[in-house]
Amino acid sequence: MDLQAISRNLNQFLIENFNTLLRQEEKALSLYGEGILSIYEFHVIDAAYSLKAEKNNTMGEISRKLGVTMGTLTTAVKTLEKKGFVKRVKKGRDRRQVWLEPTALSEQPFLEHRRFHEEMVRAVMERLNPEQLAVLDEALRVLADYFSSVTPAVREQPAAAAQPFKNLDII
Question: Does the keyword Transcription apply (predicted)?
Fold first, then answer.
């Protein structure tokens, strides 16, 4: 087993496919409303709907789900509010807690975004047999564990310190 070749392939896969996926998603979703929403705005709407189903659609939970700061989320929410896709609501006694409520206008973009992801997952799954799907599932769990463990640490480090591959020959 050539670990250097595997390392190069993994790096290439992560970089190229991440960028390709974003371009495909952007192209597919730009057909909705002639580019009224950015990809990030679609993701904010999706997170608001997902967390609303769990009755946990606060700005704090949405920022955690998206892995962004409250400031970044607030900027997007201000834009989405102006466009009429969401509204901020303060409920209950703790007026500091802000809930993000999707409006009726956001339902169609939410459904389009979900449809894009469902079709993408279905297309990949159709190409793999059950054994390959099981291996892929386990590999994705390992990757998800890795990314969730390093993401907070990377966000807290200065830019120069957040270079995990600095001394490797893979990039």
Answer: yes
Question: Distance between CA atoms of 126 and 118, rounded to whole angstroms?
Answer: 12
Give residue-wise pLDDT tens across range 22-34.
888 887 777 665 6
Q: CATH top-level class for 11-127?
A: mainly alpha
Give the model's pLDDT for residue 72. 94
Are 142 and 10 spatial neighbours (Cβ–Cβ below 8 Å)?
A: no
Residue 14: phi, psi to the nearest 5? -65, -45
How many C-beta atoms surround the C-beta of residue 110 within 10 A? 17
Q: Model pTM?
A: 0.73
Q: What phi and psi, each to the nearest 5 degrees, are found at residue 134?
A: -65, -45
The residue among 60, 53, 57 whose CA lies nearest residue 100 is: 57
Domain boundaries defined on the chain:
11-127
Q: How far, in Å, CA of 30 to CA of 13, rounded?
A: 25
